[in-house]
Design brief:
Blueprint (H helix, E strand, L loop, with lengths): L2 H21 L2 E9 L2 E8 L7 H16 L5 E4 L8
Parallel strand pairs: 2-3
Antiparallel strand pairs: 1-2
Helix pairs in contact: 1-2
Amino acid sequence: MSAKELKEKVEKALEEIRPFLMSDGGNISLVDIENNIVKVQLEGACISCSVNQMTLTNGVEATIKRHAPQIEKVIEVSQQIKVN
């Protein structure tokens, strides 16, 4: 799978989970994909949410892995430049 195809699959997964995050005043953006590790940035209410790590693992990572099984991990990074 090409890097472009992988990015499209990850973006599709984020689109699937985004409405749930937005319903609580948050959002998520793709920052980068490097060595099968997805880097995302949490936004809005997600930044200070006490369960954001659980959401990241059980919600975001699980959804991304369903779309792109080769992804090994999803990590949250702060103040990074987003991937275009």
